[in-house]
Amino acid sequence: MIQFKDVYKSFDDKHVLRGINLTVNDGELISILGPSGCGKSVTLKHIVGILQPDRGEVWVDGQFVPKMSRDELQKLRKRVGVLFQSAALFDSMSVKENVAFMLRMHTKMTEKEIDYRVTECLEQVELHDVEELNPDELSGGMRKRVGLARAMAMKPNYILYDEPTTGLDPKTAIIIGDLVARLQKQTKITSIVVTHDVKLASDISDRIALFHEGKVAALGSPDELSHQGDGQLIRKFMEGQL
Amino acid sequence: MKKFILFLGRAGTNFFVHFYRVCSYLGAALGQLRYIHFYRRQIVEQMYRLGIGSLPLIMALSMFTGLATTIQTAYQISSYIPKYIVGSIVFQSEMLELAPTLMALVLAGRVGAGIASEIGTMKVSEQVDALISMGVDPVGYLMMPRIIAGVTMFPLITIFAVVVAVGGGHYAATTMMGVSTTDFVRGMREAYRFKDVWVGLIKSTFYGGIITLLGCYLGMETDQGAKGVGMSATATVVWSSSFILIMDYILTRTLLKFS
Q1: Least trusted range by pLDDT, from A39-53, A217-231, B53-67, B115-129
Q2: In the prediction, which pLDDT does B165 show?
Q3: Closest of B207, B212, B197 to residue B246, by C-alpha
Q4: What is the pLDDT at residue B78?
């Protein structure tokens, strides 16, 4: 379980998070929805300790993240897979090396076992015969899928998706959305999807947290949110008024 | 006047802030030496890239510095100074100054700018964040192997540079200046002192550390996308070259006096 308790974060004079309260239950897929710059990605980075809150508490599996030691953070990070907005594939490595990266760094698996796991992960994201390609030979959608395969390589307890469909054409965005939903159903991994794509969030999420001005403005299942105040907040967000 | 003083104050403060940060990164990189076994693949890869990768360029340039030094030395010495002195001066100039310092200035461009732009690109494209999120310390994975490669491979490069430069000097001396091989070698043997070798090697070790540390630091501090990457690469060359020349004075004075 992941918990944010009254989390504040500022960058110089810019107050990005202004008291976030959010609990993510085990096995659920929650989407964080909101306009650009409202602190969605910043929230994700607090979970793996890339950013520290100015105030407030971040808990993962009962552990207080800001006070974790280096070794505790390393252990936590092995349990959390992250798909970055740009996929953040290592461009000096092939697809196979990218997916195998954590396995090589953190496990004592043999090359044969690593090869098997890499192929398994790539098959889960419906990619075949791409192991030897370099990231610059992949399309945007393929890069995201390789990023997802890399995030899953260590069989994590959590997967954090930072804008998984941003920059993709509508058809590829639907395919990636379906993939995220299918993987969550198959593996029951607790997943947090940061997005500003209302349709994606409504289609795949158990719950949606709508961020506004650095706070959780609304929280509930897609159905609940669309009926809360007759869905005014969602409508305002879609109309660019949030 | 007031504006000038304010400017100086700001520049001084900035310098010390950067100096403090560079020292912090260096401390963190030294701390990562505990995990040297964990990063052995990266260290070997960087030693190959920085060291072996730089050799063709360094050997070609050293040949020309050897040729030029010899011709200039022969031109400068008057006719009553024995010609074997050419061998002495070429060897000592190359070992003490030209091979370590001149080649370090070249490598500030090739290696330093390369490191800054590579790490800078990784920083702005979230690859450094990806490393952190995967439980891999970027200081250990990116910085420490490059710094180790710098301090170990630069002295090796210097040895190759001296050998090639002296070879070039010998070629120029025998074919253009009328100095015999026997005289050239006699000059070198008379001038040879072991301290010259280790002073040159200590200098190149420092330069290797300066270039790789600054390249890594400025790469890690990169922001503002492609523009920021270019600025980091440029700053690495400027700052590395400046520190190399300052350290050249300090090390030459200290080491020669000490020895």
Answers
A1: A217-231
A2: 94
A3: B207
A4: 66
| pLDDT of B46 above 80 | yes
Q: Please answer yes or no on whether B135 and A50 come within 8 Å at the CB atom.
A: no
3-state secondary structure chain B: CHHHHHHHHHHHHHHHHHHHHHHHHHHHHHHHHHHCCCCHHHHHHHHHHHCHHHHHHHHHHHHHHHHHHHHHHHHHCCCCCCCCHHHHHHHHHHHHHHHHHHHHHHHHHHHHHHHHHHHHHHHHCCHHHHHHHCCCCHHHHHHHHHHHHHHHHHHHHHHHHHHHHHHHHHHHHHHHCCCCHHHHHHHHHHHCCHHHHHHHHHHHHHHHHHHHHHHHHHHHCCCCHHHHHHHHHHHHHHHHHHHHHHHHHHHHHHHHHHC
| Local structure of A230: helix, strand or coil | helix
Predicted local distance difference test score (pLDDT) of residue B233:
95
Over range A57-75, report the average pLDDT. Answer: 90
Asked if the C-beta of B136 comes within 8 angstroms of chain A's C-beta atoms, the answer is yes
Distance from CA of B30 to the nearest CA of A (A): 16
* Chain A residue at shortest CA distance from B132: A50
Q: How far is A117 from chain B (nearest CA, A)?
A: 17
In terms of CA atoms, which chain B residue is nearest residue A72? B135
- Three-class secondary structure of residue A63 per DSSP: strand
Q: Give me the percent of chain A exceeding a pLDDT of 70.
A: 94
The distance of B160 to chain A (nearest Cα, Å) reads: 29
Q: Across the interface, which of A50, A80, A88 has its CB nearest the CB of B127?
A: A88
**What are the angstrom distances between the C-alpha of A94 and each of A130, A138, B245?**
9, 11, 40
Question: How high is the mean pLDDT of chain A?
Answer: 88
Comparing A114 with A126, which gets the higher pLDDT? A114
Q: Is B37 on the interface with A (CB under 8 A)?
A: no
Which of A85, A196, A81 shows the shortest CA–CA distance to A140?
A: A85
Q: Tell me if residue A5 falls in helix, strand or coil.
A: strand
Reported pTM:
0.85
Closest Cα of chain A to B127: distance in Å?
Answer: 5
pLDDT in tens, A144-181: 999 999 999 999 999 999 988 887 888 888 888 888 88
Residue A103 — pLDDT band, cuts 50, 70, 90? very high
Contact B135 A101 (CB under 8 A): no
Using the beta-carbon criterion (under 8 Å), do A84 and B130 form an inter-chain contact?
Answer: yes
pLDDT (average), residues B23-48: 90
